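Predict structure. Chain length: 481.
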Amino acid sequence: MSAEAAPPRVDSPSSTGRYDRSIIEGPLRSAVWKIAWPSMLTNALGGVQGIIDHVLVGQFVGFTGNAAIGVANQIFIVVIVFIMSLFTGMSVLVARFAGAGDVEKVERTVYQAFITATGLSFLVMAPIGYFASPLLLDLVNAAPAVKQEALPFLRIMFAFSSGMLIFFMLAGALRSAGDARTPMILGVAMTALNVVFNLVLIQGLGPVPAFRTAGAAMGTCLASGLVAVYAVFKLWRGGWVVSFPRTNFGPDWTIIRSLFRFGLPTGIQGVAMNIGGVLMLAFIGSLAQSAAAQAAFAVSYGQLFSLVTWTSVGLLGAAAAVAGQNLGARQPERAEAAVHVAARIAVAGSAFIGAFFLFFPRQLLAVFGMNEPEVVEIGTQLLRVLSVSGLFIAVALTYTGGLQGTGDTRSPLYISIVSQIMVPLGICFVIQQTGTLQPMHIWVAILVGHMTRCALSMLRFNQGKWRGIAVDIGGPSRRVG
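Prediction complete.
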């Protein structure tokens, strides 16, 4: 379609106010918080959506359905993280160009991320994932009953995940350009739709049959698909802080290479950390009190500690966006200060949550129905360790955001491999080989890993080498004041 044939565009922000200039000119604390709190809420909604899926499937299908979702999601996340890593690369470029006020390059970057992600989804992930799903379930030793429920779930997720990818792409682009509220609103809508669809599709309602575990995947894909259709319309029509360009709709390999250049290390980092988590579960499973330790770990680390990570990941995104925009505006000192501000907010938030872990661990565990003495004792130990560990991981994530937002996506990869895999797994291995591994040994190993990640992330960021990272995609520019 030519530019002349395109429908009229509704760009609500004026040409001189397309981007929120308070991010590069106003008070830093306000700039960081403006991006952080909607991101925190969006992340929390994503976590709640997963919990709702488990509750509904557990109620109408049983524990086999819960196990199926758990196994399938474990596989799906490892695969999809590679495609989603493109969005980290996109966010680096969008933040830098938005900070410079370069509308043309922001639009081109968002569009190329969109066509790359959808192309990989439909042409690579969907066909390969559909046919490889049985093999992947065999690799994780899924029990026959679990595999029967997990196979249709996994195939649906692989085949129809493009809507989810578009949502994550849009959220990253808007946030990097300074608008974190729109993805929050879309996230609320998507969660509400997902709940409605799941209530109908999992148990069946009226003429709609019960699709059991597969219904959870169908609900997720339908909800994200509807939101994605609306998002693409808005990106084409205009009205948001980011939009699609009006010309040059083919692939731009210069931009696509930049997406992979900045994004792929983040994808590898995500896979590495997932593998590290699986290996840590193996150590927990080797304990004499393995069942109690696994239950305590699932609730304390998997659910309650996510309260820390939800807020910290929101601050990671805020630090990345504000630092990237200010570096694009040629204000490296302000970019550095923004990350320090985000870290201080992270410490305050994690300390508040950690106080509950420290002083009310038994009450928190009781909320999840955990009353067995052995489980409560181990879970209490873990929560009290996590009350300290949360301080370090919160700070580490904000400095990770600062590094990634300014274009240094490789350093967090190396830091994660050392701190989240080599250090904690190495500690557990040495203790296991020289003595008797106890739950407390594993919890302390996790703490040491988080402390290491925090120290290395701060050290790397404060070296300031990110200041010299060049980000450009060539071609014309259209700048706004």
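Summary: Residues 110 and 173 are 7 Å apart (CA to CA).
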